[in-house]
C-alpha cells in the first residue's frame, strides 16, 4: 500500500519546506519536491494544499485505567487512545504502577493486559516503583531489556507512592548502570502532608486550598533534591509536570552546569491557574491536579522556559476523573479529591492556538516539544518524532486555521467535563496517520481499537 501526502508544507523540529511525503505500508519512504517526476504512483493521495505536515504528537505522560485516590482514572486504553488520536497524538507512554508488595513484573504484565486489544495508537510504558528493594532493583534490568527504559519515583504522596531519598538514590545508580532514566515527581510530600493537615484543621476544605497548601517552595526543594541526588549518582533525571518558576530555576542551574537534567511541563500549567481552583462552589475540583495550579502570573516563566529550552517537553499528565462519582469524593475535603485532569486530546490544540498562534513558540518548536524531544529523551527517535525516510508514518495533516470548540460535547475523552469548556481554538488535524493508516479523518475515528503496538524503547542516549 503506497500513500502520498501531496502539496503540503512539511514542518519538523528544524525545517519547514514544501514536500510530498511518500509512505509505503507503515513507513515514510521518501520526501520529494512538489510536482517532481518520481516515477512512483500511489494507491491513496491525500491533498495537503494549504496545510502543514507534521510528526504525530507523542505524549510521554498519561495515566490510563489507573487506580488512584480511591478510584480509577476514567479513560482506559480504548477511550484514551482514541481521544488522543482525535487530538493529533499518535504515541503515548503510560505508567505501570507497582502495587505495594507486588513486583515490577506484575505491574508491567497488568499494564500489558490493560493495553493489548484496546490501544488504538502505539504505546510504551514507564514503571512507577513504589518499593525500591534488592528485588525491584534487579528487575529494572529485565525491564530495560524489554524496552521499558524509564522509571517514575515519587517524593510526594507519603504512604502511597512515596519513596525516600535512599531508595531514590539507589534507583538512580541502577538506572545509570542500565542506561535507564528516572522520572521524578518532585515535591516534598512529607512537609506537604503537615501543611494539608494544618489547613484542614483550620477548616480550609475547599478545592483552592489544594494549591494553597502545596507552595511552590515544596516543588523547588524536591526538584533541587532530585537534581542533587542524580548528580551524586551520575545519572540523568527527568522532572515530570513542572509547574513552578522556583522549581524551574533549579533545572536551569543544573543544565547550565551541563548536567543531563530534563523537565516537562503540561498545558494545565500554561492555561489554567489558581483562579480556576477558586471557582464558585465545587467547580474548582475540576482543576485539582498535583503539583497544583499556580497563580496566573507564574505562567510567563513557564512559557519562557519552553522558549529557551530550559523545559524540553510538553506532555499532559492525563489523569481524568469525572465530577460525578469521582471528584465529588472530596466535597468535604480537598485532600480527598482524586488528583488529575483530562488532557490527552487537547494538548496539541492548546499548544498550537495558545502557543504558536499566540506568538510564544514557532511551529518548529511546537513539533519539538510535543513530539521530537520526547521521542529523543525516551528512546523512540527516529522511529517516532520526525518526518524522515525510515521513520514510522505517524503524521498529522494540520490545518493551521481550522476552528475547533473544546467542550465535553466535542471531545472524546471519557470524562464528564472539560477544563476548557467553550474555548474556541484555531489549528486542528484534518488527517491523523498512525504507521501509515489514516486513523482520524476530518474529525472522525476511521480505524479500530487494538491496532496500537507496544513500543520497545531504547536506553537513554542523549
Ligand atoms: O494530579 C496528578 N498529577 N495525577 C496523576 C499522578 C501524578 O502525580 O502524576
Ligand atoms: Zn506525578
Ligand atoms: Zn502523572
**Ligand set:** N-(aminocarbonyl)-beta-alanine, zinc ion
Low-confidence stretches at least 5 residues in length (pLDDT < 50)? none
Tally of contiguous helical segments:
13
Rounded average pLDDT = 98
Please tell me what the overall shape is: globular
Derived from helix and strand composition plus strand pairing, the structural class reads: alpha/beta
Over the alpha carbons, how many angstroms does the gyration radius reach? 21 Å
What is the fold-level CATH name, i.e. the topology of the domain at 56-377? TIM Barrel
**CATH-level-4 superfamily name of the domain at 56-377:** Metal-dependent hydrolases
What is the number of beta strands?
A: 19
Largest sheet: 9 strands, mixed
Please state the second-level CATH architecture of the domain at 56-377. Alpha-Beta Barrel
**CATH class placement of the domain at 56-377:** Alpha Beta
Distance between the termini: 35 Å
Helix content: 25-40%
Strand content: 15-25%
SSE layout and pairings?
Elements: E1 2-11, E2 16-24, E3 27-32, E4 44-47, E5 52-55, E6 57-62, E7 67-68, E8 71-72, H1 77-86, E9 89-97, H2 104-115, E10 122-128, H3 134-145, E11 150-154, H4 165-178, E12 181-185, H5 189-201, H6 208-212, H7 216-233, E13 237-239, H8 245-256, E14 261-265, H9 267-271, H10 274-277, H11 299-308, E15 313-314, H12 347-356, H13 363-377, E16 395-406, E17 423-434, E18 437-441, E19 444-445
Parallel strand pairs: 1-4, 1-5, 6-9, 9-10, 10-11, 11-12, 12-13, 13-14, 14-15
Antiparallel strand pairs: 1-2, 2-3, 5-16, 7-8, 16-17, 17-18, 18-19
This protein binds N-(aminocarbonyl)-beta-alanine and zinc ion (2 copies).
N-(aminocarbonyl)-beta-alanine (URP) is lined by residues 63, 185, 241, 289-290, 317, 319, 339-340.
Amino acid at each position: 500500500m503506497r500513500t502520498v501526502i501531496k502539496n503540503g508544507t512539511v514542518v519538523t523540529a528544524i525545517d519547514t519546506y514544501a514536500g510530498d511525503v511518500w509512505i509505503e505500508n507503515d513507513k515514510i519512504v521518501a520526501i520529494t519536491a512538489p510536482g517532481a517526476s518520481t516515477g512512483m504512483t500511489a494507491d491513496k493521495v491525500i491533498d495537503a494544499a494549504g496545510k502543514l505536515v507534521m510528526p504525530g504528537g507523542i505524549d510521554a505522560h498519561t495515566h490510563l485505567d489507573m487506580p488512584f485516590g480511591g478510584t480509577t482514572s476514567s479513560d482506559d486504553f480504548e477511550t484514551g487512545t482514541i481521544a488522543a488520536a482525535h487530538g493529533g497524538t499518535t504515541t503515548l507512554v503510560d505508567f505501570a504502577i507497582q502495587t505495594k508488595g507486588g513486583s515490577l513484573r506484575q505491574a508491567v504484565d497488568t499494564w500489558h493486559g490493560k493495553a493489548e486489544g484496546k490501544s488504538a495508537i502505539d504505546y510504551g510504558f514507564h514503571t512507577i516503583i513504589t518499593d525500591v528493594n534488592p528485588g525491584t532493583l534487579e528487575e529494572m534490568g529485565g525491564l530495560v531489556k524489554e524496552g521499558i527504559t524509564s522509571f517514575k519515583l515519587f517524593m510526594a504522596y507519603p504512604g502511597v507512592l512515596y519513596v525516600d531519598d535512599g531508595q531514590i538514590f539507589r534507583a538512580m545508580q541502577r538506572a545509570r548502570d542500565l542506561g535507564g532514566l528516572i522520572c521524578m515527581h518532585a515535591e516534598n510530600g512529607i512537609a506537604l502532608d503537615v501543611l494539608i493537615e494544618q489547613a484542614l484543621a483550620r477548616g480550609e476544605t475547599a478545592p483552592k486550598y489544594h494549591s494553597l497548601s502545596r507552595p511552590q517552595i515544596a516543588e523547588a526543594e524536591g526538584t533541587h533534591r532530585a537534581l542533587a541526588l542524580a548528580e551524586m549518582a551520575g545519572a540523568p533525571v527527568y522532572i515530570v509536570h513542572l509547574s513552578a518558576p522556583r522549581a524551574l530555576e533549579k533545572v536551569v542551574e543544573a543544565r547550565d552546569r551541563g548536567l543531563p537534567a530534563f523537565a516537562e511541563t503540561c498545558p494545565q500549567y500554561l492555561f489554567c491557574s489558581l483562579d480556576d481552583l477558586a471557582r464558585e462552589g465545587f467547580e474548582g475540583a475540576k482543576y485539582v491536579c498535583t503539583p497544583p495550579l499556580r497563580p496566573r502570573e507564574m505562567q510567563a516563566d513557564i512559557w519562557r522556559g519552553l522558549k529557551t529550552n530550559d523545559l524540553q517537553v510538553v506532555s499532559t499528565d492525563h489523569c481524568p476523573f469525572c465530577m460525578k462519582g469521582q471528584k465529588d469524593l472530596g466535597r468535604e475535603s480537598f485532600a480527598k479529591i482524586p488528583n488529575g485532569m483530562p488532557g490527552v486530546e487537547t494538548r496539541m490544540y492548546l499548544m498550537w492556538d495558545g502557543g504558536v498562534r499566540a506568538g510564544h513558540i514557532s511551529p518548529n518548536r511546537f513539533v519539538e516539544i510535543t513530539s521530537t524531544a520526547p521521542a529523543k529523551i525516551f528512546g523512540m527517535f527516529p522511529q517516532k518524532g520526525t518526518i524522515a525516510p525510515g521513520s514510522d508514518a505517524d503524521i498529522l495533516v494540520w490545518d493551521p486555521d481550522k476552528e475547533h470548540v473544546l467542550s465535553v460535547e466535542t471531545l472524546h475523552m471519557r470524562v464528564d467535563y472539560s477544563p476548557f469548556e467553550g474555548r474556541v481554538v484555531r489549528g486542528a488535524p484534518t488527517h491523523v496517520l498512525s504507521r501509515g493508516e489514516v486513523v482520524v479523518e476530518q474529525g472522525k475515528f476511521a480505524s479500530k481499537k487494538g491496532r496500537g503496538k507496544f513500543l520497545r524503547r531504547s536506553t537513554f542516549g542523549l
